[in-house]
Amino acid sequence: MTDSRPLILGGGVSPFGRHRNGTHWRDWVRQAGADALADAELDAADIDAVVVASESDFLSLQINPGPVVLGELGLAGRPVVRVEGGGASGGLALREAMAQIMAGLARRVLVVGFEAAAGHLDPAGVQLVYGLSFDAEVDGMAGATAVALYALSIAEHMARHGTTAEQMAHVSVRNRGNAVGNPWAHKPMTITIDDVLASPMVATPYRKLDCSLASDGAAAIVLAHPDTAPASDQPRSRITGSGVGSDHARLGDRTERHAFAAKRRAADAAYAMAGIADPADDIEVAEVCDPFTGAEVQSLEALGLAVPGDAGPAIADGAFDHDGRLPVNLSGGLLGQGGAPGATGIAQAVTMDRLLTGRYRNLADFRRGLIDVHGGVGTLACVHVMERVGP
Amino acid sequence: MSTESRLDLTLGYDHATGALGDYFDALANGRTSAAHCDHCGKTWFPPHITCPNDGGACSAVDLAGTGRVVSATRIRTRLPFTDTDRDVIFVLVAMTGADNAAFGRLEKFDGDDATGLAVRLAGADGPLGHPAQAAVFEPAEDGT
After folding, report:
1. Residue B44 has pLDDT above 80, yes or no
2. Which of A275, A307, A276, A304 is nearest to A288 (CA)?
3. Which of A321, A313, A291 is nearest to A381 (CA)?
4. Is residue A200 within 8 angstroms of chain B, CB to CB?
5. Helix/strand/coil for B54
6. Is B105 near chain A, with CB under 8 Å?
7. pLDDT, average across residues A370-388
8. What would the DSSP string read from start to end of B29-55?
9. How many CA atoms lie within 13 A of A131 on its CB side?
10. What is the pTM of this model?
11. Of A47, A48, A162, B12, which is most buried by a Cβ count within 10 Å?
């Protein structure tokens, strides 16, 4: 019986950034979709279903965006499902496409994600909307913002494990540096740890350069049942493991406020599906959710890529640098490439596909990688394992 | 030719507090109205109508109103549906008798780090942008 876990046939990303240039998210979707189809060497007629990810209609001014996206891509009439899970939206859309293919509901699925998060709604409006990302009625309306809740969480991690501001600053230096040369990146920067530590305080202990930016952008990727993939003499990647986990919506309700238990649950499920027993040894490269520097620390530990409490020192030692034992966020992550919530998880998959097939910025190819996104303060997490197949 | 234009959105919303109304009323009066799960025995403040862990029915129970700060952050921000930025200390407080922690603001504290500080629920003076903004704590003599 054929292993029905889907192959990646191709992907495209419309650059992340602050697009105050007269363009609309429909333009970014058109570009990303066309690039994905071209990369897959397919026509629109080859696609039999679409999954759309976007986080907020407050940002796009578009309810029910699925049919609009179909129209932009010449796919009117196809089945379409819109997926939303905050910052996890793109990853959840990949999982939805994977489920459709493995269930026999579709054979070739185009997954499209977008967000107009940066240059459109006023800053006060953006803060208000993102305050609804948590338990809006109890915490959000009381004033909780993303940076405040992440700060409260990492403060407990620092108290428990001794994680330092310098260790977290290394994440910012590395990820923004990795983004230099990435044509899709919103915020490539060459900075030092001292630059991070001297940047303005936003919410103790997080400073400005500890924080990612909300981005505009779109990404698209084609998943296919292996039986329907065109013959190729080039290596491809496939998704071999998928997991979703959740935690209490209110940070204060969690038994581990300093850790991302939802991500641990998602990773455990993804590793079980992929047959991975020791992720720290078996995963060779990872794109990890880093809306704040400390969130990468917490994510690495939840993903089993570092022992709890050891991620900070390992980061400072360069274990996750581009030439370290497990390169993390070679794209720049959310800190460097940017964060367009509906698109982020899909852009991660496009990046990982190219890393696994030796097509990413002349970097050494890898055999097995991980992509990771979450919504809320690690509240809803989605993890995928991807592997190279073929020659 | 692409263009940009300004769209001014004004959204009005008739808001209801639902089953959390009793909690918000108590909060406004500085009273710690929690929820006790009759099934697992956990006590939640802020309360849940249904226990999030096991779906058990919860009964309202008042706590003493004191606790300790377990985490704190200083931030300049604007509370929802208010019109001025201000310096705020947001805290998570483990109230005595509760198994979780409550998010809120810490006022009347001038120290550097509020972690471990004994506090009491104080309620809020003046108009609020939302009833949840009455989750205000102050230093207490004894918050164990």
Report:
1. yes
2. A304
3. A291
4. no
5. coil
6. yes
7. 98
8. TT--EEEEETTT--EESS--SB-TTT-
9. 23
10. 0.97
11. A47
CB contact under 8 A, B75 and A253: no
Which 20-49 residues of chain B touch chain A by CB within 8 A? 20, 44, 46
- The DSSP H or E segment spanning A381 is strand A380-389
Flag whether residue B101 sits within 8 Å of chain A, measured between CB atoms: yes
A292 Rama sector, left if φ>0, alpha if ψ -120 to 50, beta otherwise = beta
Q: Nearest CA to A237 among A2, A1, A6, A12?
A: A6
Question: Is A136 at the interface with chain B, CB within 8 A?
Answer: no
Match 């058990």 to its residue by tokens.
Answer: B56
SS3 A273: helix
Q: Is residue B143's pLDDT more than 50?
A: no
Model confidence at B49: pLDDT above 90? yes
Residue A253 touches partner B, C-beta closer than 8 Å: yes
Reduced to 3 states, what is the DSSP secondary structure of residue A62? coil
First to last CA, chain B: 66
> What are the tens digits of pLDDT across the range A247-306?
999 999 999 999 999 999 999 999 999 999 999 999 999 999 999 999 999 999 999 999
Taking CA–CA distances from A128, the nearest residue in chain B reads B80
CB of B118 within 8 Å of a chain A CB? The answer is no
Distance CA A14, CA B90 (A): 37
Nearest CA in chain A to B79: A143
Listed in sequence order, the residues at least 6 apart from A151 whose beta carbon sits closer than 8 Å to its beta carbon are A203, A204, A205, A206, A292, B73, B75, B90
Q: Can you list the positions of beta strands (E) in A125-262?
A: 201-203, 206-207, 216-224, 236-246
Return the residue in A133, A253, A258 with the most chain B beta carbons within 10 A, the one to mutate for interface testing: A253
CB contact under 8 A, A257 and B71: yes
For the record, the structure tokens of A209 come out as: 């350069």
**Other CB atoms closer than 10 Å to residue A231's CB: what's the count?**
4
Q: How far apart are CA A172 and CA A210, in angstroms?
A: 6
Average of per-residue pLDDT across B66-89: 96
**For residues B124 and B116, is the Cβ–Cβ distance under 8 A?**
no
Contact A147 B75 (CB under 8 A): yes
* A138 → closest Cβ in B9, B46, B88: B46
* Cβ-based contacts of A23 with chain B (< 8 Å): 2
Instruction: Find tokens 């407080």 and name the residue.
Output: B93
Structure tokens at A224: 């296919």
User: Which of the four pLDDT bands, split at 50, 70 and 90, describes residue A234?
Assistant: very high
Which is nearest to B138 in space by CA: B44, B61, B69, B63? B69
* Amino acid found at B77: T
Only one residue has tokens 């089945």, namely A79
From A356, A376, B98, B93, select the one nearest B107 (Cα to Cα): B93
Give the CA count within 13 Å in the CB-facing half-sphere of A267: 28
Segments of chain B assigned E as strands: 33-37, 43-44, 58-62, 66-77, 86-95, 102-106, 118-121, 136-139
